[in-house]
Amino acid sequence: MIGRIALGGGIAAAATAGVGYVIARRLTAPAGPRTFDLTVRGVERDGNGDLIVLDRTDQTTAPGIYNLWFEHGGWVQLSTEITDHGHTRVARRIRATSPGLTPQAGDRASWSGIYYATPADAGLHVRDITITTPAGPCPTWRIDGDPSTWAIHIHGLGSTRAGTLRGVLAATELGYTSLVVSYRNTAEGPTVGTGRTTLGHTEAADVDEAIGYAVRRGAQQIVLFGWSMGAAITLQLADHPRREGLIAALVLDSPVLNWTEVIKANCVRSGLPAAAGHLAIPWLTIGPPARTVGLPGLIPLRTFDWTARAEDLPTPTLILHGARDDSVPIRLSQALRDARPDLVDLATFDAGHTLCWNADPDLWHETVTTWLKARVLH
After folding, report:
1. CA 329 remoteness from chain centre
2. Can you tell me the distance from the alpha carbon of 20 to that of 274, in angstroms, rounded to the nearest whole number?
């Protein structure tokens, strides 16, 4: 009987460990291709232009402006106009289409908050530069402005530089010089080791080189814009002693402030119990298991827990967060705001993860520019 109980316990322990391993592997997986999971059901024309017909989902009925990326190339920008098209479908007004694209029924597409594919699409004039980092050369867009005030824009896990262009528009209006950076193990940055993300830990060293680049070219103050995991990187950089007095402000959209809670939220999103998220933590935070997952070493997740480290927050911070974010819970941003009302302001939107700008671009832009004007010297 004792043997059977021990064996049963061993099987249960192995199964539990296996779940944690799988979650950790999926969370840190190398950048993969976009998923094209929407089918265009039709394209219609009326007196005001073209409409694209899609299946009714939470995404396709979301208020705001979005982008459809097509499997065979190209994109369509969608306006705020939504029309019911029966019980199971909706029609969205097409605002703009990439050159050479003619959407047709049956096309496969991907829904995205990345509204501008390139800086030119956003009306931005950039220089392509390369930042030399510990991981290798990182492609970067530079938008020139005031040489004394720079903004550095950091995208999130699974995204690209183009995702930050929504925020670059605000920095450009304020006259800042902007760097839109890439970093290791992303679709645009250099590949290191197994290509797995370390959730902002090693990636921060790459972005820190962009800060050094700005300082060598006259930056006297820097505003960091971070999106999702990019916000976790931002907070690590702002907390670095050698950057004290240089980082003037942080603008964080849908920030990862506590990786354990974020992992739990994404387990629920995937149909698993929230508690399953705890099983992944040893595979990320202990050296030998982390290397088994394919990581270069452990990830010190506690240093990323700003809900616990609120008193360490060094810089005035504006958070923009969607109330319908099921990937990074807004309660984490609310907790940081409540713990540090002297430094943190929170703007809430009726939006999902990193989609605050899309839900209301004018309000997002006005909120950011007004807040920065009051806190950054010119």
Report:
1. 14
2. 12
Is the dihedral angle over the CA atoms 355, 358, 363, 369 positive or is it negative?
positive
Within a 13 Å sphere around the CA of 68, how many CA atoms are in the beta-carbon half? 30
Closest CA to 180 of 306, 99, 188, 304: 188
Quick one: pLDDT band at residue 378, thresholds 50, 70, 90? Answer: low
Question: Quick one: how far is CA 369 from the chain centroid?
Answer: 20
* C-alpha distance from residue 107 to each of 41, 43, 110, 111, 180 (Å): 8, 10, 10, 13, 31
- List, in sequence order, every residue forming a beta bridge with 339; answer none if it has no partner: none
CB under 8 A, 24+ apart: contacts of 70-74: 70/36, 70/101, 70/103, 70/107, 70/108, 70/109, 70/110, 71/36, 71/107, 71/108, 71/109, 71/110, 72/107, 72/108, 73/101, 74/98, 74/99, 74/100, 74/101
CB-hemisphere CA count at 13 Å for 363? 16
Tokens 């680049």, located at residue: 213
- Show me where the domains of the chain are located: 40-112, 120-258+305-375
Q: Cα–Cα distance between 277 and 258 in angstroms, integer?
A: 12
The pLDDT tens digits of the residues spanning 253-295 come to 999 999 999 999 999 998 989 999 999 999 999 999 999 999 9
Phi, psi dihedral angles at 259 (to 5 degrees): -65, -35
Mean pLDDT in residue range 72-76? 95
Claim: this prediction has a pTM higher than 0.90: yes
Q: For tokens 């080189």, what's the residue?
A: 209
Give just the sign of the alpha carbon dihedral 338, 339, 343, 344. negative
- The domain defined by 120-258+305-375 folds into Rossmann fold (3.40.50)
Q: Given the structure tokens 């309000």, which residue do they identify?
A: 363
Note the pLDDT tens digit of each residue in 38-58.
999 999 999 889 999 999 999
